[in-house]
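Researcher: Checking consistency across runs. Here is Helicase SNF2 again:
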Amino acid sequence: MVEPIRAASPADVKALLDRAAQTQATLDALRAHENELHEDVRAAYQASQDLAARGRLHGIALDRLRDVNGARLPVGKLQEAGYQTVADLVDVSPEQLRQIPGIGAAGAERTAEAVRRVADAAGQDTGVAGYMDLHNPDAAALLTSLYRARAADRVLERVREPAARLGGVISGLATTAKPLAGRLRRVFVRRATREQAREAVFELDGLFSDQRTERELGRIEAASRKLPPKTPRVGTARNDFEKHSADYLSILSRIVGSGERPDAARGFLTDDLSARIADQRLDETHLRVSLRNYQAFGARFALAQRRVILGDEMGCGKTVESIAALAHLRAEGARHFLVICPASVLVNWMREVSAHSTLRPYRLHGAEREAGTRNWVRTGGVGVTTFEAVQSLEVPPRLSVAMMVVDEAHYVKNPDTMRSAAVRAWAERVERVLFLTGTPMENRVEEFRNLVGYLKPEIAASIGEIDAVAGSESFRRAVGPAYLRRNQEDVLSELPELVQVDDWDDLGPEDAEAYREAVAGRSFMGMRRAAYASADPATCAKLRRLVEIADEANENGRKVVVFSYFRDVLDLVCRTLGDRAVGPLTGDVPPAKRQEMVDDFAATTGHAVLVSQIQAGGVGLNMQAASVVILCEPQVKPTLETQAIARAHRMGQIRRVQVHRLLATDSVDQRMLEILEEKKELFDAFARRSDTAETMPEAVGLTGQAMARKVIAAERERLGLSSEGLGGGKSDKKSGDTSGDADTEADAA
């Protein structure tokens, strides 16, 4: 370039503009490649949706058309003409219908209108997961197009922001500088225009000479050479989808839309608060995962509000949302982050941080604690520790931790414990704190207030029972700045349908006798286990049904996870199922070994059965390799079952999830469900969508011990036994069970 730049010749300016044009062409090509890939996904998606909708229509008999508009339709004449389902009529015009004997113009028009309305409804009702059957050849085009879109996304994720920024700047400067590119043109333009052009030439030349720009353009050029990605073989795309299904579904949601309700994705926050959250910038430079809209909103909520509780229902991706917040802070220059979690999910946290971000995790627990702490302090990253280990975690006083994440935060709902004191001390030290809990705090306002007290004492002090009693709007106003909760059905529309089946059966003679003895001995735990007393599928109804379900899953190549509260039941299941059983996974298994068992289960080709204690496997471990869940008995606390089911029915699941509850008629199972249903109705009425924690403590239901008393009394009366009190009951700690009594079970959750 001729110096000084302000006196550049037309040739110099033309060379500069040529470079700008070449750069702009590269940037435009990046956008064009991405847009083309997205169009391919949309086209394949629509084709799959159309096929799925047509499949639904094949299952709708013609006589159902009468239900559409209540008018008389010539169904009989249509059937005589060979039409059997609504799908047969989709492409048939009214003119063609009038050619059928006995069908007039009015009947043809009414029929065509009814078919159109049913077809439209079928298209709307086809879920986002309906086309994702890996064994369906019709899914091939969608899978391969998503594979290419994902590959491009990974190439572009580091250059998307600089490409957009540079593209806008270069385009504007080049347009302004253009009058100086020709000798005649620069003579005849106005003086003000000429001065603006000179300034633009100066800025454009400076931009291209800047070292940061050179580095960014180098990365952009490298990215452009990798696009567009090659079309993979269908088998390659299917294998990749199985490994990264959640990422595929997130990308699909971003391209075609998720069908989410905006108010649900915002957790039903007020409009003013939602607008403030939406204005929060989110830098995804250090992320390796695609966020859905509601997940990005959750990360922005944590960043904008600084000290909050993220209470999304299990399976919505709270871990990813929190990692996104950490990654944003890293992009802004922060170095140190801390995660406190139960020991059972520490390994999972380490893996999730590595998989979904460029941040480096350090284990501040166990044998690696000292070395991990030393390296974390020195180099920065994400320190991952447990509620126990954090009580003695020592770091330099001047160490600045940018954000602390507390997973399963309901573990510190009691402020008087040592773990709570340790978390409180760290919360006072760290400016940004994010509590994660999918548990609705057992629907207790006081416990919820305790958690908010760690974060925003001024809000905690303002929360009273009156806020809950007054209704959902009052509660949202009181806690909205500190609490965000979304439910699966509101925001995770790509999840497959969850089918829950209660499998009832009568107790066999031997099991019934064991049950009667347990009732006579007032042993609540014995009553709950008695259905497995005979230990033989030939005589044990529940065990027989369990084997039947497992065998059916085996025939269909599906994986199963079996949950029970009782270890002797788990041992029995393992013996019965033999080599196909993995486990039992119990509370005695070290956290790292638990994750290894889950990984082995997921890696097994085809059918396998993971046998797990519900307390150990129901929290923190991802079991979406399983699409069949078996619950050996109902639980005193419904949240135990909900958490266990969510291990399989969560983001990343690619098949419909079937949940089977094994239940014995005229038994403790039936009495428990009757009581729990009353409690569930109260919970559903008051605690969904962040509306309220609970209207009043006494409305929630019975404690574990109170439920035991009520169930035992009812069963003793039904069986004609003495209705005396509970005194003299057995401790019931056989076969390795450490539950003790129903209160212990309730506390364990």
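Researcher: Does this match what you'd expect to see?
Model: One thing to look at in this run: The two ends are 72 Å apart (CA to CA).
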